[in-house]
Specification:
3 domains; 607 residues; six-stranded antiparallel sheet; alpha/beta; binds fructose -6-phosphate; Rossmann fold; globular; Glutamine Phosphoribosylpyrophosphate, subunit 1, domain 1
């Protein structure tokens, strides 16, 4: 979704801002712009389209050592140049970029109109800059103008504001992340840690309610009613691995193939083979908490939700205590009953998903114990929870999540083992699971040596009106994840169902040649899944079967793709991989923008 980058220092700002925007591209956006503070004026350049389109319209040189930049993902108002950020005040003295949503922008706009100030864009963001200009005209300092404006605003914001007559930026946060990177005589502002890593490791995470005045050499925090204070500077944890595309054609393919190494990073140091247990230090779980917990609830959206579903089943299998998974947006809007003894897990790659953040706040408010299962270090969910497990996938830049899914599953499997060992799981069972989990990266690599007849499967999928995905138990959630991947990348309507439920409705969709993807690893549900497969075949469906290598059911598929065998509880780590590749290859065949599918954003920071 929207991204912010800002700079104040001694270097020329424009190249740094463009590079910052480029590093924010993966979040998904539809228009982009920059404002550079020159000696006498502020130069603004913005365009609908990609950062490359912006670069194409930039003049050869734009002098200035301070500036702000933005990638916009439209919410209020269409995808037009005038709606693109940065927005400026009617007098041209203030420029601003904004992430988030201003809920009361209509009434603020009316207020401005009464003062004869017309907004030129349709956005909610522009009212902020116009309100600040109004405050300035009434004698407020820049800081006062920002603070007074924000007092009148309802909604969420990450803001970076530049004043024509001042050598400073003002940043503010409420519900939308913002980080200040501290360099030597220069400062960087970003909504995402990723663009900061090449400049500095020293960062200040703004908290909700913070307003920061940023000069080349200082950051002063003005939060709440208190006196100005020094910020809390922390070190940005170095993310492992390369975040550049390198030789890969797309980030998605690169990230699919990074899964074995990502998985190794996720489990390293977190398993205790001797005890056959998990060892998740960041969860800070006390033994009595584990023993007494009555149930576990997991929350997430999209891919994270499907990973959480698998985690739920693993917890029930290993620990024999009830576990339930909730879609974050549903959970938090239904006045949930929170049991303070239960364990709540918020699962999120970005750690910035608005619905999951709101659910975390609701749980905390009601006294629940909440733990993050998060990829992005220092993200809002990680900091709100203050305890949990980083999944250590490394930067995931493709909008479609892949390596975060497998690492979420792995982290939840380690947690389930730890919980299970305090209850029903024997040491031998624990050891067996741990051994198999340690094998999983190698088994993924084995699959990559022979990915099977993917292009034959793509022949069936690329022509399809719709695709049905089926699986049972753990594989039902894998089927859902595979369907989500194909739908979001190839724009083909996909339906995923637990295989036993197929005959209760979706079977009506089947006609001669309809592709059905069946996930049937060698577990206790395989035979039942095969019954559904036969029911599909009998109606002319073409079966793409994901099965374990050497299994005689291979002959049941019109196209059969084999993955290496693993412990039945860990099969999602392998069966999902061909589904990711199928979505990728089908999208490519159809000429889609694989890394940045239409309308989607990497972190969904609005409700
Ligand atoms: C699908 C996808 C989305 C995200 C969802 C949650 O490929 O990426 O469905 O999984 O928006 O995002 P996080 O995990 O960042 O909370």
């Amino acid at each position: 979704m929207c991204g912010i980058f800002g700079y104040i220092g001694t270097q020329q700002a424009l190249p740094l801002l463009v590079e910052g925007l480029r590093r924010l591209e993966y979040r998904g956006y539809d228009s982009t712009g920059v404002a550079i503070h020159g000696e006498n004026d502020v130069a603004v350049h913005k365009t609908v389209g990609k950062v490359a389109d912006l670069q194409a319209i930039l003049p050869g040189q734009v002098e200035g050592t301070m500036g702000i930049a933005h990638t916009r993902w439209a919410t209020h108002g269409g995808v037009t140049q005038v709606n693109t950020h940065p927005h400026h005040a009617h007098d041209g003295n203030i420029h601003l970029v904004h992430n988030g949503i201003i809920e009361n922008f209509r009434s603020l706009r009316q207020h401005l109109e009464q003062q004869n100030i017309e907004c030129i864009s349709e956005t909610d963001s522009e009212v902020l800059v116009q309100m600040m200009a109004l405050e300035r005209a009434q004698g407020a300092t820049p800081l006062e103008a920002v603070q007074r404006t924000l007092k009148r605003v309802r909604g969420t914001w990450g803001l970076c504001i530049m004043f024509r007559d001042e050598n400073m930026l003002i940043c503010a946060r409420n519900g939308s992340p913002l980080i200040i990177g501290q360099g030597e005589g220069e400062m960087f502002v970003s909504s995402d840690p990723h663009p900061l890593t090449s400049h500095t490791q020293r960062v200040v995470y703004l908290d909700d309610g913070d307003v920061a005045v940023v000069s080349r050499s200082s950051i002063t925090m003005h939060s709440g009613q208190g006196r100005p204070s020094q910020p809390n500077v922390t070190v940005l944890e170095e993310e492992w691995g390369e975040s550049e595309l390198g030789d890969a054609p797309h980030f998605m393919l690169k990230e699919i193939y990074e899964q074995p190494d990502a998985l190794r990073q996720c489990i390293a140091g977190r398993i205790d083979r001797e005890m056959g247990s998990g060892r998740l230090g960041g969860m800070r779980l006390r033994h009595d908490t584990l023993v007494q917990t009555p149930h576990v609830r997991l929350l997430g959206c999209g891919t994270a939700y499907y990973a959480a579903e698998i985690g739920q089943m693993l917890i029930e299998k290993m620990a024999r205590i009830p576990a339930v998974t909730h879609i974050s947006s549903e959970f938090r809007n239904n006045d949930p009953v929170i049991n303070p003894k239960a364990l709540y897990l918020a699962v999120s790659q970005s750690g910035e998903t608005a619905d999951t953040i709101a659910a975390v706040k609701e749980i905390k408010l009601k006294g629940g114990q909440i733990f993050g299962v998060v990829n992005v270090v220092g993200s809002t969910i990680a900091r709100l929870c203050g305890q949990g497990v980083y999944i250590h996938s490394g930067p995931e830049q493709s909008v479609a999540s892949t390596k975060a899914f497998t690492n979420m599953v792995a982290a939840l499997a380690v947690f389930a083992t730890q919980l299970g060992r305090t209850r029903h799981l024997s040491k031998e069972q624990g050891r067996e699971l741990i051994d198999q989990l340690q094998q999983a990266p190698h088994l993924m690599e084995t699959y990559f040596e022979d990915t099977g007849p993917l292009s034959e499967a793509v022949d069936l999928l690329a022509e399809a009106k719709s695709v049905l995905y089926l699986g049972r138990g753990l594989s039902a959630s894998v089927a859902k994840e595979g369907a989500l991947k194909l739908m979001e990348l190839a724009y083909i309507p996909c339906l995923a169902y637990p295989a036993g439920e197929m005959k209760h409705g979706p079977i009506a969709l089947l006609e001669e040649g309809s592709p059905v993807v069946v996930v049937a690893p060698n577990d206790h549900l395989k035979e039942k899944t095969l019954s559904a497969l036969h029911e599909c075949k009998a109606r002319g469906a073409k079966i793409i079967l994901i099965h374990e290598k050497g299994d005689s059911i291979a002959s049941e598929g019109d196209v059969s793709i084999a993955v290496p065998s693993i412990h039945p509880w860990l099969t999602p780590l392998l069966t999902v991989v061909p589904l990711q590749l199928l979505a990728y290859e089908t999208a490519l065949r159809l000429g889609r923008d694989v890394d940045r599918p239409r309308n989607l954003a990497k972190s969904v920071t609005v409700e």
